[in-house]
């Protein structure tokens, strides 16, 4: 049974999105049962705008990183920090939830992840809707085709760092996020599956993420959207 939920939010210069992201997380965590302890760790990664001040004012646990880290290392730093904040709980009772600062989570987001974990899932990949429509129907069709090609018999088949839940004991067992500059979410998911952990693609866990065309990951969602728009 999950007794604690920790949310990790990495951010690099996200002053325009961070406040909305953190408000949505706060709302989602309020929907959890009262016995569940909650913690939010916001990792401000070499920010040069007002991101750090926004996070500090939100009441989230703030970690300020000034070192040259990959996004995988930044996510892992947040996860390790959350585990220290929730140290009185056994790892098997802690659910780690990850999202991104340019993302807002649905009111039922944390509750959906918790239900899956309590049902025996070690990791859950939720869905990510884009915040703005594509410029043309042709591009929208191409993006939908990519989503459809990933679909599996057991769910939507997509893995997003902006909407990922992992039970802490499973996370620790496979070594957590690796020091990767891109694809750290898919890498973690793959290793969890190879280790025999129970995985679920769950459309009940929903977020809305930025449809911007420039992001920090060389081969992340923003890069894919840019290729679709300009290719």
From TrEMBL:
GO terms for molecular function: glycosyltransferase activity. The keyword rRNA processing does not apply. Pfam families: Glyco_tranf_2_3. It comes from the Bacteria. InterPro entries: Nucleotide-diphossugar_trans (IPR029044). It is found in: Cell membrane. Its main location: membrane. Keywords: Cell membrane, Glycosyltransferase, Membrane, Transferase. GO terms for cellular component: plasma membrane. PANTHER family: GLYCOSYLTRANSFERASE (PTHR43646), GLYCOSYLTRANSFERASE 2-LIKE DOMAIN-CONTAINING PROTEIN (PTHR43646:SF2). This is Glycosyltransferase like family 2. It comes from Amycolatopsis xylanica. The lineage of its organism: Bacteria, Bacillati, Actinomycetota, Actinomycetes, Pseudonocardiales.
């Amino acid at each position: 049974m999950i007794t604690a939920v920790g949310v990790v939010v990495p951010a690099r210069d996200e002053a325009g999105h961070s406040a909305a992201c953190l408000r949505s997380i706060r709302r989602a965590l309020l929907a959890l049962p009262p016995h569940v302890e909650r913690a939010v760790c916001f990792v401000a990664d070499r920010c040069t705008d007002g991101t750090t001040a926004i996070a500090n004012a939100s009441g989230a646990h703030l970690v300020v990183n000034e070192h040259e880290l990959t996004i995988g290392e930044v996510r892992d730093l947040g996860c390790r920090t959350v585990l220290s904040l929730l140290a009185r709980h056994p790892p098997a009772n802690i659910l780690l939830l990850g999202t991104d600062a340019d993302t807002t989570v649905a009111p039922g987001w944390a509750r959906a992840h918790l239900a899956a974990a309590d049902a025996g899932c070690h990791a859950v990949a939720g869905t990510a809707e884009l915040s703005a429509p594509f410029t043309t129907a042709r591009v929208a069709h191409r993006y939908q085709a990519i989503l459809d090609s990933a679909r599996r018999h057991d769910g939507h088949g997509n893995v997003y760092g902006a909407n990922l839940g992992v039970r802490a004991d499973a996370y620790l067992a496979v070594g957590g996020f690796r020091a990767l500059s891109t694809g750290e979410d898919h890498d973690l998911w793959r290793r969890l599956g190879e280790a025999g952990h129970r995985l679920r693609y769950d459309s009940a866990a929903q977020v809305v993420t930025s449809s911007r065309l420039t992001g920090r990951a060389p081969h992340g969602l923003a890069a894919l959207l840019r290729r679709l728009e300009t290719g």
